[in-house]
Design goal:
Distance between the termini: 45 Å
Strand content: 5-15%
Active site: 119 (proton donor/acceptor)
CATH superfamily: Ribonuclease H-like superfamily/Ribonuclease H
Protein name: Ribonuclease T
Site (Important for substrate binding and specificity): 13, 62, 84
CATH topology: Nucleotidyltransferase, domain 5
Number of domains: 1
Radius of gyration: 18 Å
Number of helices: 8
Shape: globular
Organism: Vreelandella sulfidaeris
GO cellular component, one term: cytosol
Oligomer: single chain
Structural class: mainly alpha
Length: 158
C-alpha cells in the first residue's frame, strides 16, 4: 500500500499493523488483491450485460474514495465499479429505519449484530450486504418495483 494515506487512529482502532512481518508472507499485494476482488465482479458484469458495477457500502463515498485511490495507485485502467455512483446503506437506513449507524440499522432491520466482531472488513461487509438486501426486499414487498414499472410504462421507457 505504498503511497496510501492511512490514518494512524484508524490503525489503532482496528488493530491493524501495516509493518507486521507476517503481512508480507500471507497478504497479497494491493494490485493482486484488487485483481482477486475485481475478477468475479467483471464476470458478473459481463454475464448480466452491464457496463459497470455499483458499489454498495455503509458510508459508501468513504469506501469509494479508498477504492478509487487504490485503483489509481495500481495503474488499473478500468475500474469495474462506476466512478461515482453508489448505494449508501447509511443514507438508505436513515430513511428506512431512522438509523444511520450500522449496528443500530442492522438491529432495526432484525439483523443480529455483534459489536465484538464489528469493524473487521469482512464482518462489516457481510452485515452491510444483509442490510442492503433487507431494505431492497422491504421496498419490493411494499410494491416499490411495481410503482417504478408503472411509471416506465407511462413514460414509454420500458
Amino acid at each position: 500500500m505504498r503511497g496510501a494515506n492511512v490514518e494512524q487512529s484508524a490503525l489503532d482502532f482496528t488493530g491493524i499493523n501495516l509493518d507486521d512481518p507476517l503481512r508480507s508472507q500471507v497478504a497479497l499485494s494491493e494490485a493482486e488483491a484488487l485483481g482477486e476482488i475485481f475478477r468475479p465482479i467483471r464476470k458478473s458484469i459481463k454475464a448480466h450485460d452491464c457496463t459497470r458495477a455499483i458499489l454498495v457500502g455503509h458510508n459508501a463515498a468513504f469506501d469509494q474514495g479508498f477504492l478509487n485511490a487504490a485503483v489509481n495507485r495500481c495503474g488499473i485502467k478500468r475500474n469495474p465499479f462506476h466512478p461515482f455512483s453508489s448505494f449508501d446503506t447509511a443514507s438508505l437506513a436513515g430513511l428506512v429505519y431512522g438509523q444511520t449507524v450500522l449496528a443500530r440499522a442492522c438491529r432495526a432491520a432484525g439483523i443480529e449484530f455483534d459489536n465484538k466482531a464489528a469493524h473487521s472488513a469482512r464482518y462489516d461487509t457481510e452485515r452491510t450486504a444483509e442490510l442492503f438486501c433487507a431494505m431492497v426486499n422491504r421496498y419490493k414487498d411494499l410494491g416499490g418495483w411495481q410503482l417504478a414499472q408503472r411509471e416506465q410504462e407511462m413514460d414509454g421507457t420500458e
